[in-house]
Amino acid sequence: MKTFAKTDIGKARDMNQDYYYVSRPEDEIQLYIIADGMGGYNGGEIASSLAVNSIKSYIQSNYQETPKDKVSLPELIRSSIEYANMVIYEKSKENDDLEGMGTTIDVCLIYNNRVYIGHVGDSRVYRIRKEFIRRLTTDDSYVQDLIKKGTISKEEAFSHPKKNMLTKALGCTPYVEPTILLKGFQKGDILLLTSDGLTNMVKEDKLYEIIKQDIANAVNNLIEEANKQGGYDNITAVVIENN
């Protein structure tokens, strides 16, 4: 497994509220997490780091005793996200400045040529297999609901004025229901975890082109392209190659 990861403040923000964690190749647990925080003052920065660190510690503490099957591993991810939600929500109650803080989250646990995904919000996980890029997650957003209803097209969604309006986030309510997915991750496949600071600026065919062109420099080139297109938000990209 080869992993490349980078985060960038972008061109318009005063603070980077994205946060991520990536395992090293030699680690027993192959875990990858990305979060895009939101909230005034420094609430978003706190929410995203709390989310990532809470999920990481929860999974690391419970991984050994968890059976490595298609029921137990998804349940481990679900529980870790629910735990992180509670941690953030409780923290937001301690300080008026942190009220309403929240974050998106994407968790990828790779085991035995499969990727177990936990998702809340509009950060995304893509899989590149041969000549195709496929988005594995579905945004929890107002605009995604419009696409689902057939009100707008995917093309219209890319530049919709309300595309950043979330319908679900981590830490904003006492309970959250994450989406849990199980997908194949074969030899030669590539995963991309990304915050919307990238996907709001760069379309999917361009993401594919940049990654396939030079995987070793892909995260730098993706961030550079997002900044070239405006860099209106923090930008984070994690690329994992099953080599």
Can you give a write-up of this model?
This protein is an alpha+beta fold and 243 residues long. The chain has a single domain (2-138, 167-236), classed as Phosphatase 2c, domain 1 (4-Layer Sandwich), CATH 3.60.40.10. It contains seven helices and eleven strands. The strands form two sheets. Strands 2, 3, 4, 5, 6 and 9 form a six-stranded antiparallel sheet that branches. It has a five-stranded antiparallel sheet with strand order 1-11-10-7-8. β7 (124-129) and β8 form a beta hairpin. α1 (43-62) runs antiparallel to α2 and α6 (204-213) packs antiparallel against α7 (218-228). The mean pLDDT is 95.
- In angstroms, what is the radius of gyration? 17 Å
Largest sheet, strands/sense/barrel: 6 strands, antiparallel
By CATH, the architecture is named 4-Layer Sandwich
Which CATH class applies here?
Alpha Beta
Tell me the number of helical segments per DSSP (H or I, 4 or more residues long).
7
> How much helix, percentage-wise, in residues?
25-40%
Task: Tell me how many strands there are.
Answer: 11
CA distance, first residue to last residue: 6 Å
Name the structural class.
alpha+beta
Strand content: 25-35%
Shape descriptor reads globular
